[in-house]
Amino acid sequence: MVVDDDPGLLRLLTIRLRAENYEVEAVESAALALAALSRVRPDLVITDLRMDQMDGIGLLKEIQSRAPGLRVIILTAHGTIPDAVQATQSGAFAFLTKPVDKQELLDHVQKALKVSGFADTTEDWRREIVTRSTLMEERLAQAHMVAGTDARVMITGESGTGKELLARAIHKASPRRNRPFVAINCSAMAENLLESELFGHVKGAFTGAIREHRGLFQAADGGTLMLDEIGDMPMRLQVKLLRVLQENQVRPVGSTEATPVNVRIISATHRDLKQLIMSGHFREDLYYRLNVVHIEMPPLSKRREDIPLLVSHFLEKIAEETGQQRHIYAPEAVEVLVSAEWPGNVRQLENVVRQNVALATSPIISAELVQAALGGGSGRLPSFDEARDEFTRNYLSQILQITGGNVSQAARLAKRNRTDFYKLLGRHQLTPDDFKQR
Fold it and tell me: Which helix (H) or strand (E) holds 75?
């Protein structure tokens, strides 16, 4: 991607790079560059230093925040020493003065691409993630960008959104792809067992019969360790984890000796860690150690266009597993699936598809079968607005029953003035006379 607010120079750079068979995205401002970043997924950014609104250093810092592995070359016609120092200190790959010598530019481009975070990766890294959602593509672009670095990643999102799949994708796109990927759920076991699994332990250290159990930090050596549901890690183990991250060494339980570790950490949680920090249940210093790059997985309700695609994927998967004929959904059944609420997200969708296939009496799955799997009725949970309206109506009905239909008294109990209270009653079609004692 080439960024320059001078159309003539932008065109010249583009022509030179395309002549060397590079694909080039040319934009005229830092704002346009940032807007195109997730769509284009460049391997290298070449930007002018002096631009209106946001200059090259500002763009560099934004790129470092959004895509830590992406290399940036800065060009300027004002080749002063302070500019060069600031650019290199800010993490620019190179600082070149205009007019840029063609061969010098191409040499720096080749060098930058050799250490690009995206070198030698293929689309295989994301094969397990089925999507055509723009929102998901943005998250995948972010994951692809960070994969080439060792920056720690925090993946957040509701349960069932595919946080572990994204962690595996980051590992597959990284230079560590040929080393182990190891995942552990921090909420799935007792504290002592979790400690032993993570850090390892030595038994019989003082009896002579020493038996060593390798922990996951050792098992994932050279690869990636995913700490799922990190928000549920006990405070004592948070302290121990923080020490490992600070020292790059792990001390097994029962041992006084530490061994070096070379592991990339990816954490995941469905909980609000900032709220846990405020309540004293999560260490703030550990949070900032783990949350170098943050990726939030969207719920299925925000990527409904993926539902037919996911359903087809699950049906194909089930047919391969069972060796049976592939089922299909009736058009009205697909409509039910697309319009349903999915509190359990993609995981719940897969479970519903598996249940439908298991109970189907023909190769075509009906809407009635889908509705039954979703709990009958409309086949969906009420929306937030619908649930809020239902709660409000029930609350107003209860308070009118308590006061015998006395609006002034009911308004005082609800801590509302009479005018607002009457408006609420009208909105929810409630008549005070219906609640007066006869």
Answer: strand 71-76
Rounded to the nearest 5°, which phi and psi values hold at 415? 60, 45
Q: What whole-number distance in Å separates Cα of residue 114 and Cα of residue 117?
A: 9
Distance CA 371, CA 379 (A): 5
What is the per-residue pLDDT for 244?
94
CB 79 within 8 A of CB 86: no
The amino acid that residue 325 corresponds to is Q
pLDDT tens by residue, 206-257: 445 556 778 999 999 999 999 999 999 999 999 999 999 999 998 888 787 8
The Cα 273–Cα 270 span in angstroms is: 9
**Measured distance CA(400)–CA(109) in Å, rounded:** 74
Rg (alpha carbons) of the chain, rounded to whole number = 29
Contacts of 110 (CB under 8 A, 6+ apart): none
pLDDT surpasses 60 at 378: no
| Residue in the block written with tokens 């799949």 | 165
3-state DSSP percent of the chain in helix, strand and coil, to 5:
50, 15, 35
| Residue 119 backbone dihedrals phi, psi, to 5 degrees | -65, 135
For the chain, give the mean pLDDT: 86
For residue 97, the surrounding DSSP H or E stretch is strand 94-97
CA distance 205 to 1: 58
Q: pTM here?
A: 0.62
Strand (E) or helix (H) holding 77: none
- Structural tokens at position 67: 């895509």
Alpha-carbon span 50 to 111, nearest angstrom: 24
Is there a contact between 139 and 156 (Cβ–Cβ < 8 Å)? no
Report residue 103 CA to chain centroid gap: 40
For 234, phi then psi, to 5°, come to -60, 150
Which residues have CB under 8 Å from 333's CB, separation 6+?
365, 366, 367, 369, 370
Cα 52 to chain center, whole Å? 32
